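Thread: Modeling a multi-component assembly for a lab meeting

Hi all, long-time lurker, first post. My supervisor asked me to bring a structural picture of a complex we are working on to next week's group meeting, and I have zero experience with this. I have the sequence lines for every component (458 residues in total). Could someone generate the structure of the whole assembly? Inputs are pasted exactly as I received them:
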Amino acid sequence: MAQTEEVKVLGAWPSPFVMRARIALHLKKVDYEFIVETMNPKSELLLTSNPVHQKIPVLFHNGKPINESLVILQYIDETWTSTHPILPANSYDRAIARFWASYIDDKWFPLLWQFLKPKSDEEKEALLGRVFEGVKLLEEALRTCGKGGKWFGGDAVGYVDIILGSFLGWIRVVDKLWGVKVLDGDKFPSLVEWADAFCEEEEVKSVMPETEKLMEFAIARFGDPAPSK
Amino acid sequence: MAQTEEVKVLGAWPSPFVMRARIALHLKKVDYEFIVETMNPKSELLLTSNPVHQKIPVLFHNGKPINESLVILQYIDETWTSTHPILPANSYDRAIARFWASYIDDKWFPLLWQFLKPKSDEEKEALLGRVFEGVKLLEEALRTCGKGGKWFGGDAVGYVDIILGSFLGWIRVVDKLWGVKVLDGDKFPSLVEWADAFCEEEEVKSVMPETEKLMEFAIARFGDPAPSK
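Re: Modeling a multi-component assembly
Sure thing. I ran the full set together rather than chain by chain. Output:
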């Protein structure tokens, strides 16, 4: 794509939030430079471009920084409008997409993330029950706001697909660490089909981390939460 | 305003989140019916229209429910587009507004809310320090993204004004309960001026709760966290 503007993403490969920005840029066919943030210590660039949260990703568009993955996704959609809409066109459908985005980030994923800490069998079962309640809601959401289609938003990968899809690597890590199956095909057939289709998209493949590599990263960073598995 | 469509808000007067939806509708000059949710027990209407969170506000537009105050604000802005824009027109300014919206709701207000629980003098001072750090960021944000103007987003009350402004009643309750001054005019002159101007807006006046009444509500609901004040 001919492009006079300068687009950069500051991030790291294991971060689902960074992946979101990259997938959106891939879908929009926007060229960008990927700057690797090592995090330890945090780079001067990160500290100055996201002083409030000091978190990745940061998107730079012609030198201006934009923080927070959901803000970045909407910025990308509203800036490069001529290719591949990310949010639905209709304002009600957009509201539904934003609702699920917030549910996934604020309610559901924090539950899954708790699996990176050691827990007893009882705690594991209780937590898994709550995680499954959420997956059930998402399975229903896929069927209803996806209007029976393959994706959450309609005919192509969109906002909710990117947001939930960016967590697939970490879902698989939790599966492996704990010997569970968060996305169980018997219980959640639509969601499992959706997950497979998402990972097959060209724009996703190059940034979706390999499960083994991500698991090594997780254990190196947080320790093995279930060493006796 | 001549209106063939049906707009309703399910809510309660002490809720800052409900106030947001109402202020936005006032700014857009959209007539609506206000349905009082008593919360205890939760109404059938609330349970069926927001089954995931069971929280107010719920906006109904021609029978369709929309949940979550930030989603509702954006829906209102994107649905009634001919009057009073709520989010800025430019995609970068919108990203900045969304960034601060998320900061206020996810980081800053949860700190302030902790003042509704009893705490020791030391805990109070530590918490107040963290609250002030946030207020300082918001004072700077008002000066920079408000471009030196009266409001966060530009020339008129907008997204961030509504989101932070809806908390002014609760900020005053915290001031009274604990004998503090969260919005101290000596430290944060721009923000104090902004708060006064916000409360003077016609669209805000009718829904901004009286501090005494809100404090009575808070004590009845949560108990007096600082009885020895």
